[in-house]
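Researcher: Please translate sequence to structure tokens.
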Amino acid sequence: PPRRQLQRLRQQQQRQPQRQQHQQQQRQQ
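Model: Translation complete:
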């Protein structure tokens, strides 16, 4: 994935708990 998406994923991971993290990663990917 592009650098922008990687940065967004990292920020979301830090802010949100792991459970929501997984769902969001699947949606974005």
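Researcher: Any highlights?
Model: The radius of gyration is 9 Å.
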